[in-house]
Amino acid sequence: MHKYLLALTVVAFSLPEVATAQQLPALTAQDYARAERFMGYNTQALVDRSMGRPNWLANDRFWYRVMTAQGSEFMLVDPARKTRTPAFDHAKLAAGLSAASGQPYEAARLPFRSFTFSPDEEVISFTTGGKSWNYDVMSGQVTPNTTPAAKASPNAENEIESPNGQLAAYIQDHNLWVRDTKTDQKTQLTTDGAKDYGYATDNAGWTHSDKPVLRWSPDSRKIATFRQDQRNVSDMYLVTTNIGKPTLKAWKYPLPGDKDIATIERVIVEVNPAKVVRLQIPADAHRGSLSDDISSSGTFDDVDWSPDGSQLAFVSTSRDHKQEKIRVADAATGAVREVFEENVATQYESGQGAINWRYLPKSKEIIWYSERDNWGQLYLYDATSGKVKQQITKGDFVVTQLLKVDEAKRQLYFLANGREPGNPYFTHLYRVGLDGKKLTLLTPEAGNHQVTLSPSGKYFIDAYSQPDKPGASVLRAADGKLLLPLEKTDISRLTSTGWKAPTPITVKNQDGQIDLYGLMFTPTTLDPAKKYPIINYIYPGPQGGGVGNWSFSAARSDHQALAELGFVVVVIEGSCNPLRSKSYHDACYGNMAENTLSDQVTGMRQLAQKYPYIDLERAGIWGHSGGGYATAAAMFRYPDFFKVGISESGNHENRNYEDDWAERYIGLLKTNPDGTTNYDNQANATFAKSLKGKLMLAHGLMDDNVPPYNTFLVVEALTKANKSYDLVVFPNAAHGYGSYSPYMTRRRWDYFVQHLAGAQPPHDYEMKPKADPRN
């Protein structure tokens, strides 16, 4: 009787929910399929004449592959002759390969993406279907390549070749070795390496590999590296999910406030005969001037050999990134000379995407990067006295990358943002004298310029565009003179499908003094008379921004695809972005929980005033990693504004994230007399009780960048506060979810459709990424 009444009660309370669900407007699988057409794996295949990577030959000549409506072409460029021609006869090669292989091939659909010229350039070699072939440029014949392929070392991916190509350095049993690339003879260079105290070992906590971190001297006789001491560093643990006993993954991963972090004892290793020269300084913190690793650029950062290998200039970065010391070591004795140091109140960085200091031993000078006048600029120092000779660049703009120093002409070439009118995130190339005179703009077209210097530096390839305007690629001389048009991007096939570009937007920050820039994505079927929920995609940095690359792109994440489901999607670059002034970048220093959220809310309100079809009562937000941290913070700190949030892989508790990132941007962990710390109000779990809207959390359980415990702390806090939330976990996925990314995209769409748009998503729609058929 009691069971019967209970059952009736459950049914009675369930009926209204069923009725409500039935009354929801429904999106179909066809709606999702239409939206999926705007994903990058569908749109990029409709972009033509976009230049591929240059492959350099002798005398600054190069070839590249370009995608066409029919397939692709290989083009050959000779800068001296100002010619651009097919790299070979595509039709002849296709016919020859068809005859030789018995398989039909078309000129525009050749089955390879790369090839190699013979030294005399009369034969090209390529591989397809696991077989190697030679094509005779004159005869047009294709024959099997019978030359035995050089036997690759099984450890090749973890080796670093010397400049002359004769030796390859690698790690074995915590020691540094070299292998003769011709004879395969192996030589041990160090002998006292031990577990957690080895040579050239690569571990920044959040990234780790078996490849050595080192820098060969130009003459291939010496190696600059270090012995990394992480013996007392704490471990991080992850556990696999599988049938049977799980596997414990453990590695050294220091946290903010830890007494012991990884340190490096700098050494120079002579190769023949083997000898270790230890630099005569205390161990340095495992820090780099560019970011939170000493190999961010792919090699040993912050070291610069003299051309003859007799001296090694290097920079030592303090644990909190507030002090930089530039030093010069005698490679033979290990004696170290202090040249100068720079101290900053917040954190120092040496550029954006590249380290911008250089040692010029011939003139006994150092080019140094500093933001001391509130903008990232270059300075010239006397390497003997350590005194500033002069400021090289000056103005309200930021130097991002120093590309080339021409010591003979006393000139340098650099990329910078914000000097030209308009969008400050557009990059241009400049040349200036070391005396600071004759600053020259070399890329005058409006837009974002991506520059590739030729090996000699006499020429450069300039690819420029804007987020809403496809661009072109041209060849220029070093003085900026236009030599040859290369490609002009054609999006006619893309636009014929109904695709449209995002709208560049400009809004004011909270105090109305600073322009904020971003992009807005609206449905291609936009009806201005209707109201649309707004979704904010956020990645606050502070090491980057949500827009990322400001060049043209046929798709940015799933922003346009999501908009097609009936949303307005916005990306706003708030304060704390590094590509503007130092004060702009430092706006979040010591308070990373700000996450530019005040800028986002202010900007969205201004957009709603300008575009009445935006419904601010239905505001959502999502982000990944730092954006995941910001999303949860937005839901907790602005609970009446943001109604739905999706937080992916967020570093919600920076005391549980690797030591360097937080200590760089928040400062060293300090405990107050009352037991509180300067990190307490940075933690999302602290504010979880304020949640009012719908929140989905997601994390990969094998995330070795942001360990999943960051999300679990928020889960625990929400549970204790009796707050409802949704959780998606990927048992064996890392930080980016890998093959599970399409599933996460679909779940994100479903969540916004159901909880922000108030509609019913299709059941278990399957996203189907695919390769560009031209490849």
Q: Compute the gyration radius: what is it?
A: 29 Å
Q: Could you give a short account of the major beta sheet?
A: 8 strands, mixed
Lateral arrangement of strands in the main beta sheet? 38-39-41-40-42-43-44-45
Number of strands: 45
The class by helix and strand makeup works out as alpha+beta
Number of separate helices:
12
* Overall 3D shape: globular
Instruction: Fill in the CATH topology of the domain at 502-756.
Output: Rossmann fold
CATH class of the domain at 502-756: Alpha Beta
User: What is the share of helical residues?
Assistant: 10-25%
Q: Any guess at the CATH architecture of the domain at 502-756?
A: 3-Layer(aba) Sandwich
By CATH's scheme, which homologous superfamily of the domain at 502-756 applies? Alpha/Beta hydrolase fold, catalytic domain
End-to-end C-alpha gap: 68 Å
How large is the share of residues in beta strands? 25-35%
pLDDT averaged residue by residue: 94
Q: Poorly predicted ranges (pLDDT <50, ≥5 residues)?
A: 1-21
